[in-house]
Amino acid sequence: MDEPSLYDQVGGTPFFERLVQRFYEGVAEDEVLRPLYPERDLSGARRRLTLFLVQYWGGPTTYLQERGHPRLRSRHFPFPIGSRERDRWLLNMQAAIDASDAPEEARARLHQYITVAAEAMVNLEENAP
Description:
There is one protein chain. The protein is mainly α. The protein has a single domain (about 5-120), classed as Globin-like (Orthogonal Bundle). It has helices at about 5-10, 15-30, 45-55, 60-65, 70-75, 85-100, 105-120. Helix 2 packs across helix 3, helix 2 packs across helix 6 and helix 6 packs antiparallel against helix 7. The longest helix is centred in the last third of the chain and has 18 residues, at about 105-120. The protein is globular. The mean pLDDT is about 90.
């Protein structure tokens, strides 16, 4: 018997909509992250992240249909992402995950994924002190 996807375990799209909404509430107030979003209105970014996470975790493939392959690193390359930006992104996303109603196992999987994903987005070389 196949194990249900994380998408199904957390209740589907509404879970990811709430998660991403909480995340972007943090981004909107974050002096490090907010400048990385050129749009005044974050609703487009919220929608794209929601669709990506829904698809990644086993839900509908609307992201692929609308935007093609995620190509996360290349899509984020125009934005300067160093360790400071990575850490602030993780802080906001971790807080959103921790505030969610996801089962503990699902939260652990989400945390593991976002940590790896955030590290992969770093595109600035920083000199060690």
